[in-house]
Amino acid sequence: MKSSVRIHPSILNADHSKILSEIDRVAKVSDFLHLDILDGKFAPNTSFSWAEAQNIISGSSIPVDAHLMVIDSDVQGPRYAEAGCTSVTVHVESTADIRKTIKNIKSNGARASLALKPASQIETYIDHLDEVDMFLIMTVEPGFGGQSFMPEMMEKVSKTRDLIGERPIWLQVDGGISKETIEIARAAGADTFVAGSAVYKSDNPAAMINTLRTLAEHVQPN
Ligand code: DX5
Ligand code: ZN
Question: Which candidate, 55, 183, 196, 207, has a CA 20 to 30 Å from the CA of 218?
């Protein structure tokens, strides 16, 4: 897909009883499928079991971007890479050995990414700038779809963009991305956008993805 931005629909709030057809509704216009894994311990919600996740990973017609919100990231990160995800994101707050886990994700064939909750600061993780393929700056507290976008995270997005410099690292935002907020996040420097309820609550999810992409493409990042 020729575009200056990537749109990753999140299926957290899609209809889980027909998840593969929910993915098919957006596959043609999406870059990756965003798969949120919640264990009920890292954040107060659960999402897909390991069996359900495997079914999604092997059945998805587009590459899978797994976002692990679990307490044992060092074990689960490489496991999701091995299962066939194209990108695996672990949280800095739940990864005991970040360097080793990034290495283990990559050696299992996936892109490796680090996520930061709203209270975590990017400066703490600059040592990993030459190791990661993507940073995910959360724009809500992890756990649920449908929460309000936190504009105060834009300073962190801009800082991260500056730190990335010329490196080919993607910069993802996740939480509350919609027609109303995507341009704000793009202006701050994000290039990869997760959208859950904006997409799946709309009457036409594919059309919504196209709209989000067009809005973001028209913004010149600062
Ligand atoms: C929240 C998840 C998000 C969520 C986004 O913990 O990481 O990916 O599905 O949903 P919206 O776009 O509705 O905020
Ligand atoms: Zn997510």
Answer: 196
